[in-house]
Amino acid sequence: MRRTAELGFLLSLALILSYVESLIPFSFGVPGIKLGLPNLIVLLLLCGRNEEQTAGGEREALLVNALRIVLSGFLFSNLYAILYALAGAAFSFFAMIIGRRSKRFSVVGVSVLGGVFHNVGQLLVAVAVVETLAVAYYVPFLIVAGTVTGALLGVAGMEILPYLRRMMQEEEWNQ
The domain 2-27+37-174 is classified under which CATH number: 1.10.3470, 1.10.1760, 3.40.1350, 1.20.120? Predict the structure, then answer.
C-alpha cells in the first residue's frame, strides 16, 4: 500500500514536470526538441534500486512513464503527441534497461541512451506519419539534443540518487 502511494506521488511529480516543460520556450529551430524533464522520474525509478531489485524498478518505471504520457497528453497536448511520446518512451525505456543491465553505463550514460533513443523512436513515427524519409535530416540535431539533455538529466539524477537511496534505506529500517 505504501509503495502505491509513493508511485502515485512520483506520477504526480512527473506530471508537474511535464507541465513545467510545456511552459518552457525551448526551441532551436528544430521541432520536437524538449528537455525531457519527466524522464528524470523514470531514470530515478530505474537506477534507484540495488541490483537484486532491478526488475521491480523497471516495472514501476514503465507503469509511471506510460501513465504520465497518457495523462499529460490528454491534459496538455493531443492524441498525436501521445503517439509520438509513447514511441519515444518505448525506444528510450528499452535502451535504458539494456544500458543499465549491461553495467557498462553510469547513470549519466543510461540517461543519454534514453535521450537519444527517445528521439529515434519519435523520428521513426514521424517517418511513418509523413511517409517520407526526408525527415531523416533531423537525425544529427536530435542525436546532439538527446545527448545534451540526457547528460543534464543524468547529472541531476546522480545528485538526487544518494538522497533517494538513503530515504529508501531508512524506510526499510523503520518497517
Answer: 1.10.1760
